[in-house]
Write a structure and sequence with these properties.
heterotrimer; A mainly alpha; B alpha/beta; C mainly alpha; A: mainly alpha; two-stranded antiparallel ribbon; elongated; C: mainly alpha; 78% helix; binds sodium ion
């Protein structure tokens, strides 16, 4: 027992199958030349925003607890700041997820199709997805303009409400772009791609980029 | 035609009762139909307000406290002791106030909204874990307030520690003692079961929760004169209905609470006890004027004049 | 309109579109039909933003973050080693422990998604190693996490209590009975599963070994202590507890165990952000879709057609159960409660049903619906966190759904399962 026990303990210390080891250091854009450089830079920015958003959220929430419990004074802006961070994380994340082929889909029927059908279907899926992402980019920009005109402010921060949504149109746009690039990639290459540099297949090994 | 009307409370709460009466009147006196959307079914307060501004909703009920982020002057309703404490005088105030009936409609119109009426929802009382008879009793009490700068100012001036907490966490927060108090009208304390997790209800007369019903302005202006009159009459009828409904509501809600929790302690502060609370009002007034400038000062002064008119 | 939209959504879903697309296209079609064009699509964006606005949602990324740090480091392993030394020799012991841990964690955190992550991510690898089938594990985690709806504090019950004017304390107590009954049935099923699939057991640990594993788990045992102590001590809310756990996890893994460096922290935070985004975009799209359903008054139209006014108590309860079950298959539970409860309120009143019983049944249906395909937040969370395909996550679900449906039927015919404790405490 003790040997098996020891092994399982070792295993548990190193087993990270449940977590995601996507590392931007390893992300290499498949785009040629200057476009590739830009793509790499955007990927880098997205991952920094994601990490910073999560860390700031933890910091902000804990600061509020400490302020209230220790100093008898709450941070009134705490909730509004977290709202801003959630929007930031969600919209920096959807384009990052598109880049790494991580959006959730139900692929059972798709997987059962022969690859001669899967290819055109994947091109259609990515193009349709791109159209709706770009559409939402447009309408979320419109929504922000409307909020800008109305001038509503956040009660505690007293800053205009539209500012917290600023990541929405950007995120939708970048996501739409990722899906367009994926469609093009699928048109050019022989294999089938989930995103510009992730081949289809939903295995742990393949997704650990 | 089908008109849509959204409000911030459940169907059986004050805003819902007003909306139902309005619906009844409109449908009895015209061919129009009204669909009612209670709290949460189309989003939160700010969402339904925006939807009314875009014309998706024809009517919306939003309390000035929430409108404060759009129309800063609307926060005047958070200045303590600005509204009459006597029910008869209060009704008279809402009927006659120049600030409410003439000045606010202009401010709302700038936001694309036709202000149809404002009405009181009931005296705001505090529910706490310990008795409150003076500001000293609020010392070190973490008191949940809406995230509104003036409300925060008020409770700071009362001596409490104003604490923001999302509404969904208030019940649990009182239960586990993160917060030790919150304020709301009696009917709302009853319907949201806040009495289950507190032991004292104290009424200091510092405020009466006010709410406002609006129509999308383009929609309203586009109505025939006949329809406009019909809508205004329906509002009038609903207003009268709600004031009457209010008459016993505070007491009925108290009875319900007593029945459900016999050892609940109710306290109505007398004039002597209210004085120290009343004295804090001036600092809140200052904060209000600082936030809203001349336009706010004008409203505040008019509200005071209106108050004078009904209390003299 | 409803039929068209649901059909389009199911087809897109089956074709393998990213899951957000059926919800987004469903909303686009809804807006187009309602307003004769795309002129009001800003409101769709507004509702997507409203979907990710609730302050309590931040518990999800925070618990993902904390769980990820614990799993990468030593905390999770030490905790599980301790549990295993006590239950590893019992057949199905690990599965039962997982179900119990989900129930307990759900009870304090109040968030089903957070439970999926916090309990699921450390325990799933160990269950895999112990020889359980992945689809059983995933279904066990998702469904056990949904017991959190029934055990207080329960946000669903609070909302129901406010909308229906029912005592929240009574609801809380009434949820405990059915919640524990479900846990018991899940445990029995797990045991049967382990026996039938011949899941191997470990050798029984000696008390010396148990003492040793417990000692090694002392630091990580601070997690439950901090969560429970902090919440019931009035120091922080269940939502804030998540962030405090992050702080403690960072402290343990960076300072005490020295398992995590700054780069590791950065990577973990980024991966947390990614998982959060993948789930929250679905929450956002789901909120926009819910708005369309609510605005078009689709539930009212459907319910008007079935003549609920003529039914007796049992009939009404059955209709309510089915309506909430179906509603939650497509739409966020909280919205379903807000929209449907007022519609049913007069009927419930007329036939003289106990609103506490109705609330418990509704909460149970909401819990079932959240774990039932096609749309369910907990399913999405499991997919994103465990990186398993959709079908893997839902494949093992049927036995659990069957158990849950049996409990809801039992509740309808034997209301004392819910009301016994309530009557004991309040009557
Ligand atoms: Na719970
Ligand atoms: Na579902």
């Amino acid at each position: 027992m003790s040997k098996q026990h020891h092994e399982s303990q070792l295993q548990s210390q190193t087993d990270t199958t449940s977590t995601d080891d996507t590392d931007t250091g390893d992300y290499k854009s498949e785009l040629p030349g200057f476009l590739g450089t830009v793509d790499n830079a955007i990927s880098r920015i997205e991952s920094v925003l994601l990490a910073a958003g999560v860390l700031l959220m933890a910091l902000n929430t804990i600061a509020n607890v400490v302020g209230r419990f220790v100093f008898q004074s709450s941070l009134f802006f705490s909730e509004e700041l977290n709202r801003l961070l959630i929007v930031l994380i969600t919209f920096a994340g959807i384009s990052y997820a598109a880049r790494h082929g991580r959006h959730i889909r139900m692929s059972a029927m798709y997987d059962a199709l022969p690859s001669s059908l899967r290819k055109p279907l994947m091109i259609a899926i990515t193009l349709v997805t791109a159209v709706f992402m770009l559409g939402l980019a447009w309408y979320s920009a419109q929504y922000m303009l409307t909020l800008y005109d109305r001038g509503r402010v956040l009660p505690s921060l007293q800053i205009p409400v539209w500012i917290i949504y600023v990541w929405a149109p950007i995120g939708f746009f970048m996501t739409g772009l990722q899906y367009i690039l994926t469609a093009i990639k699928n048109m050019i290459e022989k294999d089938i791609y989930l995103s510009t540099n992730v081949l289809e297949g939903y295995d742990d090994d393949e997704v650990e980029i | 035609e089908t008109w849509r009307y959204a409000f911030e409370e459940a169907l059986n709460e004050v805003q819902g009762v007003f909306a139902q009466k309005f619906k009844e009147e409109v449908e009895a006196n015209s061919d129009h139909e009204i669909q009612l959307f209670p709290y949460g079914t189309l989003g939160e307060s700010a969402d339904i307000m925006e939807q009314a501004q875009s014309g998706i909703l024809q009517f919306v009920d939003q309390s000035p406290g929430f409108t404060g982020s759009l129309i800063p002057e609307a926060q005047v309703f958070f200045v303590p002791y600005l509204l009459p404490q006597d029910q008869e005088q209060l009704n008279e105030f809402f009927r006659t106030s120049k600030a409410i009936n003439e000045m606010f409609p202009e401010l709302y119109a700038e936001q694309g909204l036709e202000l149809l009426t404002m009405f009181p929802e009931g005296e705001v009382c505090m529910t706490t874990k310990e008795p409150v008879e003076s500001p000293e009793d609020l010392n070190e009490v973490k008191f949940r307030v809406m995230t509104n700068p003036l409300l925060v100012e008020s409770y700071q001036a009362f001596g409490a520690t104003p604490t923001p907490l999302p509404w969904g966490e208030v019940y649990g927060g009182l239960q586990t003692n993160i917060i030790q108090g919150q304020e709301n009208p009696m009917f709302f304390i009853e319907s949201t079961k806040m009495y289950e997790v507190t032991d004292y209800i104290t009424c200091a007369g510092h405020n009466n929760f006010t709410t406002a019903v609006m129509a999308n302005k383009d929609f309203f202006d586009g109505l025939s004169e006949e329809d406009q009159t019909m809508v205004n009459n329906a509002i009038e009828a609903a207003f009268d209905h709600i004031l009457e409904y209010q008459q016993g509501l505070h007491e009925t809600s108290m009875e319900k609470i007593k029945e459900a929790k016999p050892d609940m302690t109710f306290t109505v502060l007398d004039e002597e006890q209210r004085k120290p609370f009343q004295e804090t009002a001036s600092s809140v007034e200052e904060a209000f004027v600082e936030m809203t400038g001349d336009s706010g000062k004008e409203i505040l002064d008019q509200m005071k004049a209106d108050l004078e008119n009904v209390t003299k | 309109m409803a039929v068209t939209i649901f059909s389009i959504m199911v087809v897109l879903l089956l074709l393998g579109f990213p899951m957000m697309i059926p919800l987004i296209i469903g909303s686009f079609v809804g807006f187009y039909t309602l307003f004769g064009g795309f002129g009001q699509l800003e409101t769709m964006v507004q509702q997507m933003m409203a979907g990710i606005r609730p302050a309590s949602l931040i518990a999800v990324p925070m618990f993902i973050f904390a769980a990820d740090i614990m799993t990468r480091g030593q905390s999770a392993g030490r905790l599980i080693d301790m549990v295993m030394s006590f239950v590893g020799h019992i057949r199905g012991g690990l599965a039962v422990s997982t179900a119990a841990a989900c129930t307990m964690f759900g009870a304090v955190s109040g968030s089903t998604q957070a439970t999926v992550v916090a309990i699921g991510s450390p325990l799933r690898p160990r269950m895999l190693k112990a020889g359980y089938n992945d689809s059983f594990i995933l279904a066990l985690i998702v469904n056990s996490s949904d017991i959190a709806f029934l055990i207080p504090p329960s946000i669903g019950m609070i909302i129901y209590g406010v909308v229906s004017n029912t005592s929240i304390s009574e609801l809380f107590i009434a949820g405990v009975g059915p919640g524990l009954l479900i846990l018991l049935l899940f445990s029995i099923y797990s045991y049967i599963y382990a026996v039938r699939h011949n899941v191997p057991t470990e050798e029984k640990a000696t008390w010396g070994e148990r003492l040793r594993t417990t000692q090694k788990a002392l630091w990580p045992l601070g997690f439950p202590a901090i969560i429970i102590g902090g919440i019931y001590g009035g120091i922080f809310s269940p939502t804030e507890a998540a962030a405090v756990c992050v702080l403690y996890a960072i402290f343990l893994e960076m300072v005490v165990f020295r398992e995590l460096d700054l780069h590791g922290l950065y990577k973990t935070a980024k991966s947390t952000g990614l998982i959060t985004a993948v789930v929250f975009i679905l929450v956002a799209a789901g909120a926009a879709f819910s708005w369309v359903i609510s605005f078009a008054q689709i539930p009212q139209q459907i319910l008007a057609g079935i003549g609920i006014d003529q039914m007796g108590q049992i009939g009404v309860l059955v209709v309510i159960s089915i309506a909430f079950f179906i509603g939650c298959m497509f739409v966020d539970p909280i919205v379903v409660i807000l929209v449907l409860v007022p519609i049913f309120a007069p009927v419930v009143d007329n036939v003289g049903l106990d609103p506490v019983l109705v609330g418990t049944i509704i909460t149970l249906q909401v819990a079932i619906g959240s774990a039932t395909p096609p749309f369910g937040c907990d399913i999405f969370t499991a997919i994103a966190v465990f990186k398993r395909p959709y079908m893997d996550v839902v494949r093992g679900t049927p036995p659990f759904i069957l158990i849950l449906l049996c409990v809801s039927a039992a509740l309808i015919f034997f209301p004392q399962i819910a009301l016994f404790l309530r009557d004991l405490a309040f009557r």
